[in-house]
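Holo model, adenosine monophosphate. Inputs:
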Amino acid sequence: MIPAIRGTHDILPGEVERWQRVEAVSRRLFERYGYAEVRTPIIEREELFAKGTGETTDIVQKEMYAFTDKGGERITLRPEATPSLVRAFVEHSLEQAMASPKIYLFGPMFRYERPQKGRYRQFHQLDVEVFGVSDPAVDAEVVDLAWALVGELGIANAELVVNSVGCPACRPAFGEALLKALGEDVTRLCGDCQRRAGVNPLRIFDCKVPQDQPIIDGLPHSVDYLCDACRDHFAAVERHLGMYGIPYRVSHRLVRGLDYYTRTTFEILAGNIGAQNAILGGGRYDGLVKQLGGPDRVGIGFAAGIERLVLAMPDGARDDGRRPLFVAAMGEPARESALALLRDLRRAGLEAHMEYEGRSIKSQMKRADRLKAAFALILGDDELAAGVVSVKDMTKGGQARVSRDAVVNHCRALVAGGQE
Ligand code: AMP
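Output:
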């Protein structure tokens, strides 16, 4: 056997239904909030993420699946969606094409990370982005959308954390304050942090090394270094969240692992899924569109990890509404009629199964049970001669003979009745 690549996984029946649920719930929700779907390629130019995600980020420095293709171009499997969506926004002038540029995407992302529960090398995100609105009301709306998604998926014990990382006007002063507060301690931090201190001190907050944490916990807070405009913006975001009644905590460590964030950043953490507990994260990126060659337009969005949403969702042996039918045949002439009935049922919009190997009626009924069939439709010589089908209620046990001509409509009514 040739196994799947480390850090990748198959999504099999039994689990895939939970994925479908995440997709269906989020699609409905996004459309209610006015978002339209966009699908972009999985491969992009490496420089899109070097420029977009940022040269100093762990993603770009350590985690990209980048390679030189046969034409000599540097290509990468996308590690995240935002730069791709910004590229599409600019390349197709979506600002002109859409009345309101609000877009979403579902798809696989690739990062060469150390795999563990909730962390994979190929994982899946759903991602939303809004372009061109700088009003703090839209920050709160995007957070509200994320909060609604988590709520509609039934994820309990979720915690929302928010922060403001300021803008290019006020961030340099914060960076300096970080270095000043660190002082000599910088030499006691891990090698990665010493490098971060040199290129982008904010990135020190991404550090996961346990020995570094007491030093990092004592560092200054970005909200204390905001310029007036950023301070007013953050106050308005907080006011709107209060108005919506969304509970949140301000976390000074939430700078997020990407370079492009400005002002609002946020994450939602789940209580029940282990160490990799961030189910969703996002924020505002007011300079990114311009930096990637587009017009000077602001943006804000978030990405949720679908694996982690699926992990955090309650098990709930929820009734999925399926009421399959099973067609059982006894003897060769009946088998042909059964195949025709099977096809008629499916054409009428009903889920129907049959066994093709001509096993005993007992083993066919066992199969019907395994499929959790609501009704079995039995055809034998007797039924054929009389022009009827025996319809057996698999939960209550009763059986009735229904004329072959009427049986499809009869089943439709039975199935609809069971769903009420
Ligand atoms: P990020 O793009 O790093 O802000 O991540 C956004 C969300 O994607 C996180 O909150 C996770 O839910 C998910 N995520 C990020 N990296 C991984 C990974 N390696 N495996 C699974 N999910 C991930």
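The mean pLDDT is 94. The chain is about 40% helix and 20% strand.
Archived with the compound record.
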